[in-house]
Amino acid sequence: MYLLERMNHWARTTPSSPAIVFEGETIDFRAFQAKVENTIALLENEFGIRSGDRVAYLGINHPNMLYLVFACSHLGAIFTPYNSRLAEDEYRYLIENSDPAICFYDKHFAAVADRLQNIECKLASVDHLNRQTNHPFSTPLHKDNSAPLLLVYTSGTTGKPKGVLLSNKAVAANIENGNALYDFQPDQNILVTLPLFHVGGLCILLLPALTQGATIHLHSKFDPWATIKTLSSNSITTTILVPAQMAAMMALPDWDKAEMPSIKYVVVGSSLIPMSQIKAWHAKGIPVSQVYGATETGPTAIGLHPDLAMSHEGSAGQAAHLCSIEVRREDKSMCATNENGDIWVKGPNILSAYWRNREETDLVLQDGWYNTGDIGHIDEDGFYWIVDRSKDVIISGGENIYPAEVEAVALQHPSIKAIAVVGKRDPHWGETPVAAVELQENTTLEQADFKAFLKDKIAKFKQPKSIVVFDVLPRNGMGKIEKSDIRKSVNASVENS
Prior knowledge:
Rossmann fold; GMP Synthetase, Chain A, domain 3; 5-stranded antiparallel β-sheet; 16 helices
């Protein structure tokens, strides 16, 4: 079934059952269906949205995002959520690149939207979606599984973010992967605090559970105390977290005494997970189910079934229901058991293409396989272990930071001759970015000056937290900066401090 057909089933069979709980409001399946149908009508009649149009969203978590996903699926449009943590210049680029027919913004971004009025894009307050229309929609259900449904941006390895196109088929496949792993039922209650502009927040638990008739408890943003309080209620059965969220929760005095009587397991992903965090949850009798993937895989590619979590601590799990996984050497030959290599993923859940970027698409998609760039191995029992990520990517608090994107902006500073951004281990964020710089002759660079220079150009979480000045950055025989040497140096200083 298509997305809206799945929801219509629950609107018919269990109309008064809660679909969404958000900020004290409960939206049952009948009301959810009505909200989606009203959104379809508004998009069609007021904004002229047609098949293939991009419908962008700039804001924090809200049920409106879900109504838009389902409405876009019906119309054949493409839902395009923007990261709510970016800088104004980055939004300008995303809007120009995705070229949406309409960009909705919430009250938190009204000032940003006002300053973006000079770009060629129609911007509208999300309040427009809250109005009841008297004109029903006439567009029939768009039945093309290959048509794109989501355009989600991931930081760029070559300096600019790339838009990942996920088709209706890919989203449906990810729903099947999630349900095969977690067997969602209508009596379950799922807490979602991750941002819905990430496929991790939208697709790992939320869509699989919601389309199975379960109830989603949605928080507008993550708050560690509020999360512990919600998990300690008598209804929540599972949630999804990233390691930085776990660290924030475990740092609170409420953590040790927190009892979570209805939690069956927690799902964790996005980056390498410290064993100490896994054991802390296991000590409470709550299995930690790891999930592995990328925006490009929808994201679920590998998952650890909750029943196996405690006996396979640290493993990413086994191939998702509709996925094939291979671990390959650099020459593309298959690795042996326990031999580390590149992880490749194949399945109906992977991306169709990068938006308007054939060159990058051809680099990662080969014969239907997606090259994650991550390093891992498979053990004798068929369980996968992730040992390293793509060599340059930094994951800070669950957000991907690609150094090339930061470096491209930083090199515009007149004092910087060369730069390499690397990750430094951090107990709270997992990693934080550090800038190793080689300066122009007779110049200096202060952290405050560098921070001010980057302020409106890139998001705060991407900005290097410190600067290390080198007389000459280490380079190999071909003149390429040796980031591995810089990374070792930066992290050695942490260990010795």
